[in-house]
Amino acid sequence: MSELNAQKLVSVTPKSSEPTALNAIDQRQLISAHRALSGLEHALRFASPFAALSFRDMVWLLDGLGAMQLDGEPVWLQTVIDEPNHPGVLRAENYASIASSITHSPQHTPVTRSMALHIAERLSDDAVPHSVVLRRDANSNEALQHGLAHWEHVVSDHGGESDSLVMAAIADAKFRRLCPFTANNHASAGLLFGALLREEGMLNHAPLCLSAFFSSHAEDFKQALPDDNAVVRFYLRAMNETALDLTNRLEALVKHIDHCRETIEQTLSRAPVDVVMQAVCRPICTNADLVEAGISRRQTSSSYLKKLAAAGILSSHPKGKELRYVNTGVLQVFSDLT
User: What is the CATH number of domain 250-337?
Assistant: First the structure.
């Protein structure tokens, strides 16, 4: 797969600044995208709490990895296991954490320039506070501010579009073409896009790893970006295919989580099953996660993890002096997405 470096997109300008007319879009494609997103929302809403927890953690991580790839960082799901301290892995995990906080925020926060800057700063290196700033290219500040104002107008007023998915696609593409920050432009765009779908009521429960789709279709993505009509068609295809694929994977994940519960009940006869499930059903867990979930003694939680590894649902991997436990079945459900 060819990498799509954000800096290569700075000079790209749209062929048309006019709103994309709905009659220029294949209506069947638009309807299919809405149905696919609704189906994913429905499936996740009625999945077991532990399957939903595992699903969200995994999809946010995959979306983070895809965003890192788009921003020029060659990291993959296997990298998360083999090189847990890789800078790109840490950034992807930070991306997943931000996505989680946006989704679970109790208060509605509108998608604005301020939110974009806040997200970009959270994605930056914590050792250098406020290290992500607007680009300071020669003679570009006025055009950049105008571009951000236009993006914000599309987001707040739909830019003349009556359909939320069409508006979200155009807004996201405008932001990526603009590349307003010195770093993490695709990662910022991915998080803003998720927040925008939530704001529009498209995805209140389910995450959608479009960054992974964009990364795996990088050349098609790059060719679509300069033209709004092509953008809408590409994004609708991406949302439709990704939502359908994730719905199928969720079904497989639910079966695996049921298997995990049965294994825990058989292997740890005296353990509080729901407490153990809270940690173990996530893609990766540690001894500290079990303690945080409610197993008061580290020796007990360590024993539980070792027994579950011996039972085959976990595999242990060192991270410094600590052992991390990977739920192999969870990763297998999503292993071919990055």
Answer: 1.10.10.10
Residue 214, C-beta contacts closer than 8 angstroms, at least 6 positions apart = 4, 66, 70, 186, 221, 238
**Burial degree of 10 (CB within 10 A; 0-12, 13-18, 19+):** middle
- How many CB atoms within 10 Å of residue 117? 18
> Cα separation of 286 and 160, whole Å?
49
Q: Domain ranges in the chain?
A: 21-249, 250-337
Q: Is 132 left (phi over 0), alpha (psi -120 to 50) or beta?
A: beta
Strands 314-319 and 322-327: antiparallel
Per-residue pLDDT of 249-294, as tens digits, reads: 999 999 999 999 999 999 998 899 999 999 999 999 999 999 998 8
- Please report, as a single letter, which amino acid is at residue 110: P
pLDDT for the residue numbered 195: 93
Provide the 10 A C-beta neighbour count for residue 78.
Answer: 11
Sheet with 322-327: strands ordered across = 284-286, 322-327, 314-319
Superfamily holding 21-249 = Fido-like domain (1.10.3290.10)
Total-model pTM: 0.88
Tens digits of residue pLDDT in 92-131: 999 999 999 988 876 678 899 989 988 998 998 654 444 5
φ, ψ dihedrals at 284, nearest 5°: -140, 135
> What CA–CA distance (Å, rounded) separates 167 from 158?
6
Rounded Cα distance between 239 and 319, Å, is: 35
Residue 8, pLDDT score: 38
Cα separations in angstroms, 184 against 4, 169, 176, 217, 247: 12, 19, 10, 19, 29
**Can you tell me whether residue 24 is helix, strand or coil?**
helix
φ, ψ for residue 183, nearest 5 deg:
-160, 165
* High-pLDDT (> 70) share of the chain, %: 86
If you ran DSSP here, which 8-state letter would residue 338 be given?
-
Give the tens place of pLDDT for each residue, 138-180. Answer: 556 777 888 888 899 889 876 556 789 999 999 999 999 999 9
Three-state secondary-structure class, residue 323: strand
Give the separation between CA 90 and CA 160, rounded to whole angstroms: 39
